[in-house]
Amino acid sequence: MVVHVALHLSKLFREKRGLSIFIIFVVLIIVFYSINKLFLTPRSVADIALVATQDGIIALFVTLLLIAGEFDLSVGEVFVFSGMIFGYTIPLLGPYLAFVVALLCSGLIGFTNGIIVTRLRAPSFIATLGMAFFLEGLIFVVTGGFEVTVNLSKIPFWYTLSGDLPDGLNVWVIWFALFSILTYFILEHTRFGNHVFATGGSQNSAYAVGVNTRRVKLVLFVATSVISGLVGIMSLLYYTAISPVEGQDLPLIVLAIAVIGGSSLFGGVGSIEGTVVSALTIGAIYVGLVLAGVPSYYYYSFVGALLIAIAVANEKLLKRKIQI
Amino acid sequence: MSDSLERRNTDSSGPLLRVKDLHKYYGNTPAVREVSFELGYGEIVGLVGDNGAGKSTLVKILAGYHKPDKGEIYFKGKKVEFNSPYEARREGIEIVYQDLALISTMPIYRNIYLAFEPKRGIFIDKKTMKEEARKFLKSMGIDVDPNKLAGELSGGQRQMVAIARALMFQANLLLLDEPTSALSVYEARETLNFVSRAIKDTYRGRASAIIVSHNIHHVYSVATRILVMDQGKIVLDIPSKEMSPIEVEEYIVKITKEKASQR
Ligand SMILES: Nc1ncnc2c1ncn2[C@@H]1O[C@H](COP(=O)(O)OP(=O)(O)OP(=O)(O)O)[C@@H](O)[C@H]1O
Ligand SMILES: [Mg+2]
């Protein structure tokens, strides 16, 4: 009986990689709540959402990229770069054009990443790390290390991108929900999504039966960059300032979110559901540890341990199911 | 998929395939040289030859996977230059690769329809994909659940599913590169008979096949014609009735020995 249940459970975990993080999420909620009843007040939920949604929106696209077998270490610098372009060009171009230009620049950076990876065949680790350093240098040259600030009264659409909702929430929750639904349907129900899985599963085999694997990757690099740029602008509007160093942790945090959510660094495997729950879990850990009175440095250790545990467990489970 | 068949208007006056002076080099090594041949409708050709003779390279060129360095290909009466496997498949050329089979991390039904997924509006039609895949696999005598990941299959099952995929799209030209290498003797015979029946009955003379194999005896049972390749060239091209499998085997051994003595 016990063996039967265990077998059944192990099968379930193999079928649904996002499941482990879902269970961890539920357990953590219960633990944090029993430690401190403030954990489930609107204020805390809003704090969780703030952490989860900013990183989560980028993580959704990084998930697609990971499933296609690539990743992007430049998302953090694109985040800052786009905010900087937006803030600096408003006086010249007005807010709307500045917004478009910032996103175009972000898209161009993603396009460059994609070309370097798909045409010049550099590993995405090298290509996007190089791009991150390049942008970081540029950002410091342009800003002199100072924050970029904006004056919201000059930006009519600021509320759409970072306005407050009741109960301390802000519209990022809505954006996160919309992008989650969008990426979910793209991944699970469109040809493009099928090609994303195929490209990461085996680029050669996918190409050999007719998938345009280069285009899949290029599109994803561009999309990831544009979204990182968008979130950079959203963050600038919310805090009315963005600092040149703000993007440094971001690429690794979003990568961690995707992997904790069940995406494989080897490509071909992953899910949007997993990433959504993972992003919420990261937010919950952040807020939960603060409310539990644990010094905030432990946050990183906690996330790190979780990352390793889940990544190792998931690869083991996958290997037991199929020979790769 | 019947509509895709309709779209492929076949001009059956000339040959189905005409290859003229095809060359392909990997760096400086010639893999395919001076290859010319024609393929009529309804033919099943056994393409044999030693390891490294250039068989896979030749069929990969025909499938749009490689671009030839020189030479021309005419398919269904018109000159074609495929820039990708996708373009070749769209024209009606299906291939089972020797080295690139299914994607292990994807379900069988998604593998089968990859790059040609049926759609309903903007979304892919998973229900149709699953049902049609199950039906077709069953008709070939393959009893697997299309929801399973390809990586969960045995080597033989994978090969059968890859062959099913090639047959399912009602191609005009089927290229099978070592399709029976992972199959048992019985499975190999059943599968090749299925291919042969498909060419004769289902396609009713609108299609042909090239079957690459090390095992001359495997292909002889279904091939109407034998092509032998050696060092990138076609060195023998005869109807299978005119030479026994043993004689072909001896011929290959002879040229291989000559090659060795020349060194
Ligand atoms: N991707 C490649 N890069 C470099 N050389 C290659 C490549 N593929 C094949 N070759 C070389 O080209 C020649 C023809 O190889 P090919 O695979 O077409 O032969 P084959 O007849 O299919 O052999 P086998 O029966 O072993 O499958 C060989 O000398 C091989 O070493
Ligand atoms: Mg070969």
From TrEMBL, chain A:
One GO term describing the cellular component: plasma membrane
GO molecular function, one term: transmembrane transporter activity
Bilayer topology term: Multi-pass membrane protein
Transmembrane domains' residue ranges: 18-36, 48-66, 96-118, 125-149, 169-187, 218-238, 250-269, 276-292, 298-318
InterPro entries documented for this protein: ABC_transp_permease (IPR001851)
Subcellular location: Cell membrane
Keyword Membrane applies: yes
Keyword Membrane included in the entry's annotation: yes
Name assigned to this protein: Permease component of ribose/xylose/arabinose/galactoside ABC-type transporter
Native species: Metallosphaera yellowstonensis MK1
From TrEMBL, chain B:
Segments forming domain ABC transporter: 17-256
Source taxon at top rank: Archaea
SUPFAM superfamilies: P-loop containing nucleoside triphosphate hydrolases
Coiled-coil region(s): none
Pfam families recorded: ABC_tran
An MF annotation (GO) of this entry: ATP hydrolysis activity
Keyword ATP-binding: yes
InterPro entries, A to Z: AAA+_ATPase (IPR003593), ABC_carbohydrate_import_ATPase (IPR050107), ABC_transporter-like_ATP-bd (IPR003439), ABC_transporter-like_CS (IPR017871), P-loop_NTPase (IPR027417)
Keywords: ATP-binding, Nucleotide-binding, Sugar transport, Transport
Protein name: ABC-type sugar transport system, ATPase component
Species the sequence originates in: Metallosphaera yellowstonensis MK1
